[in-house]
Amino acid sequence: MQSEVHKFPIKGFIETSFLDWKGELSSVIFFAGCNFRCPFCHNSDLVLHWDTLEDIHLEYIILTMRKFKHWVNKVVITGGEPTIHMGLFNALGYLKREGIQVKLDTNGSSPSVLKGLVNEGLIDYIAMDVKGPIERYDKWCGVEVDRKKIEDSIRFIMEGTVAYEFRMTVVPGMHHEDDIYQVAEFLRSSDKFFLQEFKPRKCLDPSYLDIRPFSKDVFERISRNVQKIRVTGIKPEERVVKFREKKTKIKAST
Fold it and tell me: What is the full per-residue pLDDT of the chain (254 aa) written as tens digits?
């Protein structure tokens, strides 16, 4: 196992967390490096300066998890973007041989890797970040993105047998409300879609540290609208139009 360590650069490890796998107690492993440059990313050190961070050996992580195996048998693999490292297959293989369930956080840029991991039975849950409406993906990600790969990942996840969720970090100024509703409509038939509040800390682009998140009232209103879209398929502004059309039809019939 030692010879494989440098093929999957692990730069962070949390022994126990209630925050990273909804409803579950898990450990968290942070892989370094990312192929996106989302300006609002709050893991900038893992993206830009990961070579200055200390390596954490997988042997240490596994030995630590063995100590807590009666309480913690789940781990979240996050980053950065784990799927840019082909050594990910080896790392997850070691974890699965320990009987550990694996949740993968991903940006969906590598559908072939996702398919390989699923086909080999190496992941039990997928959480994919959707950055915004697909047609403007370069804007959200700070780099040129192969949008077809993003769409392929979404399709594969939704049509697959592995439990999953989609999530979107909403950033005032970068995302308009309609951007959020477009994503909600696009993912309407998915099992789960969550909004995440932007948190201005350690942002990849320092100017984003000055952006204030949506207020609690605004965020909750947007979240309610998203849930209505997932139920009805109708965006908030379309409800007004449809209501007026309905009233017109009623008047005409009388």
Answer: 434 444 679 999 999 999 899 889 999 999 999 999 999 998 888 888 888 889 999 999 999 999 988 889 999 999 999 999 989 999 999 999 999 999 999 999 999 999 999 999 999 999 999 999 999 999 999 999 999 999 999 999 999 999 999 999 999 999 999 999 999 999 999 999 999 999 999 899 999 999 999 999 999 999 999 999 988 766 555 544 443 344 444 445 55
pTM for the structure as a whole: 0.87
Spatial neighbors of 254 by CB under 8 A, at least 6 apart, are: none
Is there a contact between 203 and 209 (Cβ–Cβ < 8 Å)?
yes
Bridge partners, 29 (sequence order): 13, 77
Domain CATH number, residue 85: 3.20.20.70
For helices 147-159 and 111-119, the axis angle rounded to 10 degrees is: 20
C-beta separation of 79 from 43 below 8 A: yes
Cis omega before residue 23 (within 30°)? no
Q: Which residues contact 75 (CB under 8 A, 6 or more apart)?
A: 26, 27, 28, 29, 65, 95, 100, 101, 102, 103
The range of the structural domain enclosing residue 180 comes to 2-253
SS3 13: strand
- DSSP-H helix ranges across the chain: 44-48, 58-67, 88-97, 111-119, 137-141, 147-159, 177-186, 216-232, 236-253
Quick one: which of 179, 199, 197, 176 has its CA closest to 187? 179
User: How many domains, the chain?
Assistant: 1
